[in-house]
Amino acid sequence: MFQQKLTEIAQKHEIPGMAAGILMGDQIVYASHGVTNLGNPQPVDEHTLFHLASITKTFTATALVRLAAAGRLDLSAPVRRYVPELRLADPGSTAEITVGQLLNHTAGLEWNLIDGEQATLDGFAAELDRLPIIAPPGTRASYSQAGYNLAGLVIEKVTGQPYEKVVADLALRPAGLERTCFGLDEVVRHRFAIGHTADGDGVPRPATPWAAWPAGMRANNPGGGIASSVSDLLRWARHHLGSADLHAMTEPTVPLRASTLGDAFGICWFLRDVGGVRTIGHGGSGNGQFAELLIVPSRDFAVVSLANAGPAGYPANQEVVGWALADRLGLREREVRPLAYDESRAREIAGRYELDAMDLEIATDGAGLTLAVGIKPAIRRASEADMPPDYPAATLGLLPDDEYVITDGGLAGQRGYVTRDAAGAVIGADLAGRLFRRIR
Questions:
Q1: What span, in angstroms and rounded, lies between the C-alpha atoms of 166 and 305?
Q2: Is the peptide bond before 222 cis (omega within 30 degrees of 0)?
Q3: Quick one: 258 and 353 in the same domain?
Q4: Coil, strand, or helix at residue 165?
Q5: Does residue 276 come out as left (phi exceeding 0), alpha (psi in the -120 to 50 range) or beta?
Q6: Same domain, 119 and 26
Q7: Mean pLDDT, residues 183-190 taken together
Q8: Which Pfam families match (predicted)?
Q9: CA 164, 165, 171, 174 torsion: positive or negative?
Q10: Residue 348 and residue 318 share a domain
Q11: Residues 92 and 227 grouped into a single domain
Q12: Peptide bond before 209: cis, by omega within 30 degrees of 0?
């Protein structure tokens, strides 16, 4: 049944290759479909490596939690205790940001630096004074790749060893992960999936570079550089289910508002109630590759879904996870129903919003609202590598309390909300846990 369902979902979304697995107690089942690469096809199975992108953050956070338990660092301490050369755009934030705030995305750092010479974590940190500060530290959550890359530098400073080695020693080996690794030099030792993106003609083609940044650029490894397989990710889930020293990572640290990703952040993990049952999870999106891991601690359950095409890989993985929760545990997401179109509200939020790498456009034609999001044109023009396609305008439905939901397209089901200043003017829009600042 699982294999049949995965094949159905992969074919529906035209994904070249998918792999998935379910852990339930002592039982594990796998399913796979398609090929690693349309240009050089090899069959996908539970051992095939996919780029996990942001699921890497769970490994970075685990290493830091274990360093803290060993007395090597204090998660409540300012980052500058360990990285004294740190300079941010705001001197107050430079002094105040703590290691723990990096791990639950409350440091106030915008999403990421998207240009510059960042081959090392030291080089990345040296450029952080160019990154906007979107809020005072500790006052709100906004998902930040930069925060996790900085956390990787903390690991290097505390241990005097490369980030990747520390993660291997404190996370990969204790969990018994056999294929999980960083960098193409290690990835090519195994069968691995290539991401695919569609050109203007809609035909999926292999994406380059393999990750979302060129080979040798280690600066993004702590936030998104790891590769793994379904079999290893289920071992990772089992490790977190069975390790008492990691249980604190699943406790809420800051609430999330109107987010499809979760109701709160723990230490790294998105915490979300599904059918009244607590789940923990994390997703990842790379260059034509999407990954999803969800764990239900009280049911000794986990599900993994990996796909090698964008942007359809995201909704495909969501369908796999949703099906597994319903079929195996009887848990279903609560349906969100948009309100009737309100022209006054629509015109109030219509406009252009941005963060460092992306633009978000909310528009109305007087009868409905749409939302489009994509990479900034200047960044796309300057890049020598392929870049993921933009998400074209999709229908946006209004919800109570300045919240909204996207109802079709590649981001269908994603929720968000708008932010207002003290005078009540709309100054930002949150989507996928990230704050986009209003510019028009």
A1: 27
A2: no
A3: no
A4: helix
A5: left
A6: yes
A7: 93
A8: Beta-lactamase
A9: positive
A10: no
A11: yes
A12: yes
Higher pLDDT: 115 or 398? It is: 398
- Is residue 320 located within the same domain as residue 417? no
What is the per-residue pLDDT across 78-87, written as a single tens digit (0 to 9) for each? 999 999 999 9
Rounded Cα distance between 183 and 186, Å, is: 6
The confidence score (pLDDT) of residue 85 equals: 97
- The candidate with the shortest Cα–Cα distance to 159, out of 243, 259, 68, is 68
Contacts of 145 (CB under 8 A, 6+ apart): 54, 111, 112, 220, 223, 224
Which residue type is seen at 364?
A: T
The rounded distance, in Å, linking the Cα atoms of 40 and 408 is 32
pLDDT score, position 80: 98
Tokens read off for 118: 């960042």
User: How far lies 2's CA from each of 21, 50, 59, 275, 321, in Å?
Assistant: 9, 20, 28, 21, 11
Domain finish residue from 303, 334, 365: 334
242-250 long-range Cβ contacts below 8 angstroms, 24+ apart: 243/174, 245/65, 245/66, 245/69, 246/62, 246/65, 248/65, 249/61, 249/62, 249/65, 249/280, 250/278, 250/280, 250/297
Query: Residue 47 is part of which domain span?
Result: 1-334
- Using the 3D structure, point to which of 277, 309, 334 is the last residue of a domain: 334
> How far apart, in whole angstroms, are the C-alpha atoms of residue 427 and residue 163?
37
3-state secondary structure 87-110: CCCCHHHHHHCEHHHHHCCCCCEC
Mean pLDDT of the chain: 94
Find tokens 């939020």 and name the residue: 349
279 plus 375 within the same structural domain: no
**Strand bridging mode 351-354 / 181-182:** unpaired
Structural domain total, the chain:
2
pLDDT in tens, 298-318: 999 999 999 999 889 999 999
* Terminal Cα distance for the chain, rounded: 50
Q: Which of 230, 203, 294, 192 is nearest to 29 (CA)?
A: 230
Residues 55, 162 share a domain: yes
The answer to whether 64 touches 222, Cβ cutoff 8 Å, is no
User: What's the pLDDT score for residue 386?
Assistant: 67
| pLDDT of residue 236 exceeding 60 | yes
